[in-house]
Design goal:
mainly alpha, 3-stranded mixed β-sheet, 3 strands, single chain
Length: about 550
């Protein structure tokens, strides 16, 4: 690969240094970034104007770069950086999150704190101070919310109010669990910041309830905005109708294959739950190591010697009260490649939610998607990419596409042959991801309410109603996210088949996967262009 363009690299470095400070907190583990010490979110009205101006300045600089003598790889980097910049526009000016979404500010308060709570290593003095600093920012963030929310959406306010239920009890429980882990000299500051944070969020609750009757019921972004997202951010060469058709075909396939699998396994006794979290943690550790060996022995992909492990830990008391704020894991970062990644688990129980119940029987489906060779594996390898532009998140289509793709990849290679009911779980996951395409698009176009989408998921996957409604709410104000699993996977399958046909006997699956993982943040259409020279899917991105 040619040496990356230095001007493009310099602009990317400046953009991401700015973005790490200004990027909103979110419950999505793929999007989490490291903040500088002392960081506080700032979404005051003046800052929002400043952020918009900065976005426009970055776009002017990017568009002003001379593209003379650029390699194909430089053009891929250009589109990646442009997509990252356009996401700022998407958040601020298209979805208008700070002006329309009351739950946005729950994530900039509780979510900003949650980012630090999730880190699994012992709490240092600096990290404890950062937690206090973020708690101290709650009153200013709530004030900004009340000033900015000039077109609030009622269903998003309902999500916010549900998240703020018993916020006093939750934050006091977090503080109590933190105290034995931090210096006694910080206890007073923690108590004071917690008290002020609680008062601010309870004030926000009261304000939302008061304003709720006059809020709009229309949360959909609409077709024009959705098509803008597909072309400029997700880099998907498809119309909404084409995406719907792809999702429906995969839905039909997954229902059929699950039917076959269940009939095949009808005489196989059900898999029991693990007797304890400790037993599940030990099984997960063994399974993760076995999966790494499986990848190498079957010549599927390379597992770097330096790559650390993806492990389970029992959910700690300082996380439990806020565990609903996002994916309960710590996938590390580009400065923490020497550390293991961790997913926190509760005690096994038949009453667990959809994904947790699956892992309480067999940890491997989630190891594969979230850990190895899924998110942690891909992100860690991408963080070590020699090209800095490609170390950063662009759109979930590549990341979630990979996470979903490797589930069926390892199913086909026989990883789950020793537990037939786990194969049923994989096919049921496939049903969910296929349905998400329709949920995403119908929510975005205004054809589903959140409640209708949740009901549809709960009945059709099937899955538990609380998880289904939570998913529907998340997808409603993150349009374009729910399609990423299924559509990203289909793009990878198309890319692989094109590579096999074009390269013939020169095609090597290990090399293909190693390239995919190292560049796993890059939209798949761009990888297909770079790897094979096929530009039919990317021409429209330059128009």
């Amino acid at each position: 690969m040619a040496q990356p363009n230095p001007e493009l690299q310099a602009l990317s470095k400046a953009f991401w240094e700015w973005r790490f400070v200004t990027q909103p907190a979110t419950g999505d583990d793929i999007l989490r970034v490291e903040r500088p010490d002392g960081w506080q979110p700032d979404f005051s009205p003046a800052k929002l104007v400043e952020y918009d101006a900065k976005y426009r300045d970055f776009r002017r600089q990017l568009d002003g770069l001379s593209r003379e003598s650029w390699s194909r790889s430089d053009s891929v980097d250009f589109l990646c950086l442009r997509s990252a910049m356009e996401r700022v526009n998407w958040e601020l000016n298209v979805l208008r999150l700070p002006y329309r979404n009351p739950d946005f500010y729950v994530h900039q308060t509780l979510g900003a704190l949650y980012e630090l709570l999730l880190i699994h290593t012992p709490i240092t003095s600096e990290r404890a101070k950062n937690m206090i600093t973020r708690l101290q920012s709650f009153p200013a963030t709530v004030k900004a919310a009340q000033e900015n929310l000039n077109d609030p959406v009622g269903p998003f306010a309902d999500i916010a109010l549900e998240a703020l239920e018993d916020v006093r009890g939750k934050l006091n429980a977090v503080a109590a669990a933190l105290k034995p882990q931090i210096e006694r000299s910080l206890h007073k500051s923690l108590d004071k910041a917690t008290k002020a944070g609680i008062e601010a969020l309870e004030n926000y609750q009261h304000w939302l309830r008061e304003k709720r009757p006059g809020m709009s019921g229309d949360f959909s972004c609409g077709r024009e905005a959705y098509e803008y997202f597909l072309k400029n951010i997700a880099m998907l060469p498809y119309t909404p109708e084409e995406l719907l058709e792809q999702g429906r075909q995969e839905w039909q396939r997954s229902v059929s294959f699950e039917t076959f699998e269940k009939l095949r396994n009808r005489e196989v006794p059900p898999d029991p739950l693990f007797p304890s979290a400790a037993a599940q943690i030990e099984a997960e550790r063994r399974d993760e190591e076995a999966i790494r060996q499986f990848l190498e022995e079957k010549d599927i992909m390379s597992v770097p010697d330096w790559l650390q492990h993806y492990l389970n830990k029992k959910m700690p008391d300082h996380i439990t009260p806020l565990a609903y704020m996002g994916v309960v894991d710590d996938l590390t970062s580009d400065t923490r490649l020497h550390e293991d990644a961790v997913s926190y688990i509760p005690e096994p129980s038949p009453d667990l939610s959809y994904f947790r119940l699956a892992t309480a029987k067999d940890p491997r489906p989630i190891i594969v998607h979230e850990g190895v060779p899924g998110h942690y594996f891909q992100m860690a390898i991408s963080w070590a990419n020699p090209n800095p532009v490609r170390r950063r998140y662009i759109d979930s289509g590549a990341n979630e596409g990979i996470g979903f793709y490797v589930e069926e990849l390892l199913l086909q290679f026989g990883l789950f042959d020793n537990k037939p009911h786990t194969r049923e779980i994989i096919y049921n996951f496939m049903r969910l991801r296929a349905l998400r395409v329709e949920i995403d698009i119908q929510l975005a176009l205004g054809n589903f309410t959140i409640e209708q989408a949740g009901e549809y998921l709960a009945k059709t996957v099937p899955m538990d109603k609380p998880t289904a409604v939570h998913e529907a709410g998340f997808f409603a104000y993150n349009p374009g996210q729910a399609i990423t699993y299924q559509i990203g996977k289909l793009q990878i399958v198309k890319f692989l088949s094109d590579a096999k046909i074009q390269l013939g006997e020169q095609f090597n699956l290990r090399r293909f996967h190693d390239y995919l993982m190292e560049n796993g943040n890059v939209p798949i259409a761009l990888l297909r262009w770079e790897y094979l020279g096929l530009d039919d899917e990317v021409r429209g991105f330059f128009e």
